[in-house]
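ok, trying the design again with the full structure, not the truncated one.
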């Protein structure tokens, strides 16, 4: 039972990444089919553009949740260099809680819009899908982003884990690589003298 739960948690922890990959593959394939159909057969697939747009919107929201999980959202942090070392983590926590409050409010607004104010008979023009099913990504996406921001803060401040976004990790490895290369070149130059 414990192993099944752990495997389920690991899968759910990476859910946004899997969904993003699937959505990207599907909407790029649909757009490619649309281009081939239009260029070689002179026939346009009317439904393809609308479906691609909806899949792209879903891709963006799941991608935002995935980026929140990786702590990879853009932040303005240059001012942290001017502050004592103990202050930036506290300010990041405060800004994340403001972000959570905004997301929570938007979850409420979008849920109210989708489930209470949206007419069930509003349908997409080409596909005929009720728009409620398209707009459900708003409360779902902001809920996922909120949960991921809370999860990252839990790992950082409760468990004490350092979560470094992928760009910073890559930049760190490039800097280390450059330093190693520079050191090797200097030692080779010294050996020639």
């Amino acid at each position: 039972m414990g192993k099944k739960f752990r495997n389920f948690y690991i899968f759910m922890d990476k859910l946004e990444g899997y969904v993003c990959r699937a959505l990207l593959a599907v909407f790029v394939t649909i757009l490619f089919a649309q281009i081939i159909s239009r260029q070689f057969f002179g026939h346009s697939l009317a439904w393809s553009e609308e479906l691609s747009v909806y899949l792209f919107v879903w891709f963006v929201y799941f991608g935002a949740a995935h980026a929140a999980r990786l702590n990879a959202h853009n932040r303005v942090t240059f001012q942290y260099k001017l502050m004592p070392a103990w202050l930036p983590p506290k300010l990041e926590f405060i800004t994340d809680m403001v972000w959570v409050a905004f997301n929570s409010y938007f979850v409420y607004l979008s849920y109210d819009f989708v489930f209470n104010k949206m007419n069930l008979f509003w349908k997409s023009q080409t596909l005929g899908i009720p728009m409620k099913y398209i707009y459900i990504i708003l409360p779902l996406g902001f809920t996922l982003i909120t949960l991921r921001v809370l999860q990252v803060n839990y790992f950082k401040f409760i468990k004490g884990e350092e979560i470094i976004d992928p760009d910073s990790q890559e930049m760190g490895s490039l800097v280390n690589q450059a330093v190693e290369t520079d050191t090797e070149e200097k030692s080779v130059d010294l050996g020639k003298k």
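Keeping the full-length input from now on. The chain is about 75% helix and 0% strand.
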